[in-house]
């Protein structure tokens, strides 16, 4: 039980976002919305919790996310005849979007669906800087029937080019696009078999985690960060050598289109990503890592990740609907902006933007009139704070100077005459203004 000396705190791995930081969050989201709308995206909002089997089937039973990190509970049955349902807080949103695509028959329109979302996700990870248990993603999914062009490498390149534009417009410096192809649903099993074979004789030399991964999900060994295992991992077979002709051709067309747009990228043959639904193109955008103070991310340098998921709809019982998407870790994006010099240009105008006016009633009897005046000005589109008649005038001036450009004094004389005293802090000028002209004057 909490006691006065033991107040409740936010749960470990979750955090409160407060002003003025939230101004930066809103600014980032509005830039993202503006970029997405220029590329023809519409917003989708899916539930924060879903049936557990959606993630088990979509993301994959053996991924870290599903096997270790989900917040899952049995929802109580409401009637005896009802079965308890296993529910999970969404650890990511691609599976939910594809479920919604299937449920609402969005494929029947024959159109390519270009959807974006902004919202919290939940993973029970070990919290550290840039890694939280509730974190935010800004994501995009492009999917549709094959006839809508959803499989085309043009879509991959468009999504990547849009990301480059978004990061540039946000002012993120030094981002790097790492790109790979993990092949089709038939290439992957051949590659995984080859990996297993190559891992078998060297497994005992790997760290404990990698020994387990070599058994359960050998692809995961590739993105291990364990420094002692790197030389062995480097020598493992590469997926590029297992791609069939059509996957190889698809990947090369993505690269050609990126070159045509002038979007720089690095091919990273070990980039396999931690979710099972990926096929063909996979990618991550990183910012300079831990050693570099510009990143602000500690060791978590993946700002965002994504890729193709051509078989996900079918895995979830839907029609064929190839797709590609990404999710930006918004917390990491904000940390990076705050650590880089780019933050002030986004936030300062909001942090420093003062209200138009502060109304200072003289004496508590003037409080009601002050609120009525504030209502009039706010309805005229001005930003206004109201003081309290119980404050001494000096305190009102100090409070007003902190938050507003003008102070409006409302005393008995002013109320009787309808002529108000207004001081402009920037110039120190004090003037008398008729109430009818006040809104106009305060805008200046
Ligand atoms: P993901 O790589 O698991 O992909 O997550 C995307 C991004 O979310 C990461 O790059 C990272 O910035 C952020 N992120 C992940 N976990 C955390 C955490 N615990 N704390 C803070 N940030 C985190 C997906 O979620 C896929 N659904 C992306 C996608 C969309 N693929 C296709 N469409």
What number of domains? 3
Mean pLDDT: 92
What's the end-to-end separation, in Å?
54 Å
| Annotated CATH homologous superfamily of the largest domain | Bira Bifunctional Protein, Domain 2
CATH topology of the largest domain: BirA Bifunctional Protein, domain 2
Unreliable spans: none
Give a quick account of the main beta sheet: strands, pairing sense, barrel closure.
8 strands, mixed
Q: How many DSSP E strands?
A: 16
Classify the secondary structure makeup into a structural class: alpha+beta
Gross geometry: elongated
Bound molecules: histidyl-adenosine monophosphate
What is the second-level CATH architecture of the largest domain?
Answer: 2-Layer Sandwich
Strand content: 15-25%
What features would you describe in this structure?
- The longest helix has 18 residues, at 21-38.
- The model has no long low-confidence stretch (mean pLDDT 92).
- The protein contains 17 helices and 16 strands.
- An eight-stranded mixed β-sheet has the order 1-5-6-11-10-9-7-8, sandwiched between helices. It has a five-stranded mixed β-sheet with strand order 13-12-14-15-16, with helices on both faces.
- It has 444 residues and is of the alpha+beta class.
- It has three domains: 21-184 and 264-340, Bira Bifunctional Protein, Domain 2 (BirA Bifunctional Protein, domain 2); 185-242, no CATH class; 354-443, 3-Layer(aba) Sandwich (Rossmann fold), CATH 3.40.50.800.
- Helix content is 38%, strand content 21%.
- Bound molecules: histidyl-adenosine monophosphate.
């Amino acid at each position: 039980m909490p006691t006065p000396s033991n107040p409740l705190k936010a749960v470990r791995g979750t955090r409160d976002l407060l002003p003025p930081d939230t101004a930066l969050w809103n600014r980032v989201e509005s830039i993202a919305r503006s970029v997405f709308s220029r590329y023809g995206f519409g917003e989708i909002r899916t539930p924060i919790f879903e049936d557990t089997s959606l993630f088990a089937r979509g993301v994959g039973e053996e991924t870290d996310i599903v096997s270790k990190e989900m917040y899952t509970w049995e929802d109580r049955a409401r009637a005896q005849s009802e079965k308890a349902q296993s529910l999970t807080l969404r650890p990511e949103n691609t599976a939910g979007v594809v479920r919604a695509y299937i449920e609402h028959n969005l494929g029947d329109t024959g159109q390519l669906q270009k959807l974006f979302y902004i919202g919290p996700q939940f993973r029970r990870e070990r919290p550290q800087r840039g890694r939280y248990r509730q974190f935010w993603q800004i994501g995009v999914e492009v999917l549709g029937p094959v006839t809508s062009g959803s499989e085309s490498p043009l879509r991959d390149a468009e999504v990547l080019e849009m990301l480059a534009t978004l990061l540039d417009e946000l002012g993120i410096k030094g981002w790097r696009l790492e790109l790979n192809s993990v092949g089709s649903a038939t290439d992957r099993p051949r590659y995984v078999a080859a990996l297993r074979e190559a891992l078998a004789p060297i497994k005992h030399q790997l760290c404990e985690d990698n020994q387990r991964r070599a058994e359960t999900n050998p692809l995961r060994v590739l993105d291990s960060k364990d420094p002692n295992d790197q030389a062995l991992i480097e020598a493992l077979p590469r997926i590029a050598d297992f791609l069939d002709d059509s996957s190889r051709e698809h990947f090369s067309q993505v690269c050609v289109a990126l070159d045509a747009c002038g979007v720089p990228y690095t091919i990273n043959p070990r980039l396999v990503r931690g979710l099972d639904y990926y096929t063909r193109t996979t990618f991550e955008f990183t910012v300079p890592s831990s050693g570099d103070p510009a990143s602000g991310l500690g060791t978590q340098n993946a700002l965002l990740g994504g890729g193709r998921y051509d078989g996900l709809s079918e895995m979830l019982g839907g029609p064929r609907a190839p797709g590609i998407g990404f999710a930006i870790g918004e917390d990491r994006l904000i940390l990076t902006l705050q650590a880089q010099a780019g933050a002030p240009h986004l936030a300062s105008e909001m942090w420093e933007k003062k209200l138009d006016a502060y109304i200072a009633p003289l004496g508590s009897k003037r409080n009601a009139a002050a609120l009525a005046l504030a209502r009039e000005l706010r309805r005229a589109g001005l930003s206004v704070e109201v003081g309290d008649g119980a404050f001494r005038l000096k305190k009102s001036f100090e409070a007003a100077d902190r938050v507003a450009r003008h102070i409006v004094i409302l005393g008995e004389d002013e109320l009787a005459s309808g002529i108000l005293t207004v001081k402009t802090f920037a110039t120190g000028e004090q003037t008398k203004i008729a109430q009818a002209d006040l809104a106009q004057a305060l805008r200046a």
